[in-house]
């Protein structure tokens, strides 16, 4: 999953992108409208636990964002300042749930409470070396369940009535299948042209031969 709720409007023209080739990007929006829609995945083998990161930490959240999105072109937040991260993470109803394998962060789910009992799964994914081992389905199941019971942790919030997310053709090849297997239903599809931005990597030159 990619993109950010604070950056949905197309940014102003960037001279650095002049002459860059464009690619067609398909974005799919999916939803659940009842807790009974959730189809949980089996827990993976091994020592995997999922913990909420309750103390807002721009450093940690940027690490998760840059590491999970390193090879799938997550770039929207790479330019955020420390203050922007702090402001976003301190918003009521924003939660970060982190999967750990034997104490090492493997991936995360970011939730954002919205109006009228809606919760968006804003970001979800695994660091590349942890994919393909059953952790992703388990993490998505757990994160979706936490979206459904989010109001229990935020006094004054209405009960969740809808959980939604979007994914795109630049995400991992198994992302859509994972969402459908967890009971999400497609409700919108869009195709837009976007600059063909190079894969950022967790640091310059990573994942390239």
Features:
209 residues, 7-stranded mixed sheet, 4 helices, 19% helix, 29% strand, disordered N terminus, GNAT_dom, Acyl_CoA_acyltransferase, GNAT family N-acetyltransferase
What's this, in brief?
By secondary structure, the chain is α+β, with helices and mostly antiparallel strands. The protein has four helices and seven strands; from the N terminus they run ββααβββαβαβ.
Description:
By secondary structure, the chain is of the alpha+beta class. It has helices spanning 58-68, 82-89, 135-148, 175-181; strands at 22-32, 48-52, 94-101, 104-113, 118-126, 162-168, 185-195. The chain has a 7-stranded mixed sheet, sandwiched between helices. A hairpin with a 4-residue loop joins strand 4 and strand 5 (118-126). 29% of the residues are buried. Mean pLDDT is 88; it is low at 2-17.
Poorly predicted regions: 2-17
Task: Report the major sheet.
Answer: 7 strands, mixed
Strand neighbour order, sheet with most strands: 2-3-4-5-6-1-7
- Label the overall shape: globular
Number of helices: 4
Distance between the termini: 25 Å
Percent range for β-strand residues = 25-35%
User: How many strands appear in the DSSP assignment?
Assistant: 7
Tell me the Rg in angstroms: 17 Å
Alpha-beta content class: alpha+beta
What are the secondary-structure elements, in order, as H or E?
Answer: EEHHEEEHEHE
Helix content: 10-25%
Topology of this structure?
Layout lengths: L21 E11 L15 E5 L5 H11 L13 H8 L4 E8 L2 E10 L4 E9 L8 H14 L13 E7 L6 H7 L3 E11 L14
Parallel strand pairs: 5-6
Antiparallel strand pairs: 1-6, 1-7, 2-3, 3-4, 4-5
């Amino acid at each position: 999953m990619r993109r950010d709720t604070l950056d949905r409007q197309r940014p102003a023209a960037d001279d650095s992108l002049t002459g860059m080739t464009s690619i067609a990007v398909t974005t799919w929006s999916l939803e659940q409208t009842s807790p009974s829609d959730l189809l949980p995945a089996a827990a993976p083998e091994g020592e995997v636990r999922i913990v909420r990161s309750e103390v807002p930490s721009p450093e940690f959240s940027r690490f998760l964002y840059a590491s999970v999105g390193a090879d799938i072109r997550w770039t929207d937040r790479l330019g955020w300042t420390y203050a922007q991260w702090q402001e976003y993470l301190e918003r009521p109803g924003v939660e970060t749930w982190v999967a750990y394998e034997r104490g090492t962060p493997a991936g995360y789910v970011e939730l954002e409470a919205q109006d009228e009992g809606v919760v968006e799964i804003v970001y979800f994914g695994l660091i590349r070396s942890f994919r393909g081992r059953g952790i992703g389905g388990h993490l998505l199941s757990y994160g979706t369940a936490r979206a459904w019971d989010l109001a229990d942790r935020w006094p004054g919030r209405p009960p969740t009535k809808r959980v939604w997310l979007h994914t795109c053709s630049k995400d991992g090849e198994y992302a859509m299948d994972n969402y459908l297997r967890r009971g999400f239903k497609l409700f919108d599809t869009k195709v837009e042209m976007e600059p063909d931005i190079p894969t950022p990597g967790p640091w310059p030159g990573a994942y390239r031969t």
